[in-house]
Amino acid sequence: MTTKKIKFYETWTFVILVCIVLPVMFRAFVYSPRHIPSSSMKPTLLIGDYIFISKFSYGYSSVDLPFGYVIKYFEGRIGGEKPKRGDIIVFRPPTQPDTDYIKRLIGMPGDVIQMKHGKLSINGEELATQRVEDFYDDQPDNTDSRIKQYKETLPNGVSYTILDEIEEGPADNTDIFVVPKKHYFFMGDNRDNSADSRISIGYVPDVNLIGRADMLFFSNKSSFIKLWDWVKSFRGERFLKNLRNEE
């Protein structure tokens, strides 16, 4: 049995392909990891959560490709499916094309959205809500507090929990929003602590969608680099948690 001697350049070509090119392509076009640094999506997503977003679910636009906020590769979106109401989505606001946001998709193109006294209405119908057990917040930005928690159900049957920390908060009463064609309306589940379409980011064009949050694969109360704290700060109940809609 004989073997062929592998040339030096062939070895390095293989190493570069497997260790650099393929992982970069996978992250850019298939699944991409993200870290949650803020509390706007509590209780669904907590500070210290690490998630995977699906880059291919909604297809691709120039914005969600590498350096897409600088280089315009093409117009519109290519491939994929339409996002569904209730999806948790990473996107880039038109005013901050180099910054990723993550919120829940509430309003579809053509929808009429309004908040009245903390209640969300879509197309003139107030969403059904149900009071559930208070949320216990043990994170650094809000230590040892309990916050009112509600189960909210969208018109398509998707349910999730929201927080109501402040009665008649600054975004609990809004003007009427009419979502333009090819745009979406996003809100955070932490209703009194979310910079979303009600307040600052406005309507989000469909080309600015980056990917759908599919899985929470790791969660740690402490900093990820503090290896010595992993055991006591690891949130085992959030390990490999599905984030997809329950319709």
Written account of the structure:
The chain has 247 residues and is mainly β. Helix content is 11%, strand content 34%. The chain has helices at residues 8-29, 230-233, and strands spanning 31-35, 49-54, 60-61, 77-78, 88-91, 101-107, 112-116, 119-122, 125-126, 128-137, 145-153, 159-164, 177-178, 183-187, 204-205, 209-219, 241-242. The strands form four sheets. Strands 1, 2, 5, 6, 14, 15, 16 and 17 form an eight-stranded antiparallel β-sheet that branches. Strands 9-8-7-13 form a four-stranded antiparallel β-sheet, with no helix packed on it. A three-stranded antiparallel β-sheet has the order 10-11-12, with no helix packed on it. A hairpin with a 2-residue loop joins strand 7 and strand 8.
The residue ranges in which pLDDT falls below 50 over 5 or more consecutive positions are 1-9
Helix content: 10-25%
What's the quaternary structure here? single chain
Give a count of the beta strands, DSSP E runs of length 2 or more.
Answer: 17
End-to-end Cα distance: 59 Å
- Give a short account of the largest sheet: 8 strands, antiparallel
H/E topology pattern: HEEEEEEEEEEEEEEEEHE
Number of helices: 2
Strand content: 25-35%
Q: What general outline do the C-alpha atoms trace?
A: globular
The overall pLDDT, averaged over residues, is 85
Rg on CA atoms, Å: 21 Å
Q: Decide which structural class fits the backbone.
A: mainly beta
Give a short synopsis of this structure.
The protein has 2 helices and 17 strands. The protein has helices at residues 8-29, 230-233, and strands at residues 31-35, 49-54, 60-61, 77-78, 88-91, 101-107, 112-116, 119-122, 125-126, 128-137, 145-153, 159-164, 177-178, 183-187, 204-205, 209-219, 241-242.
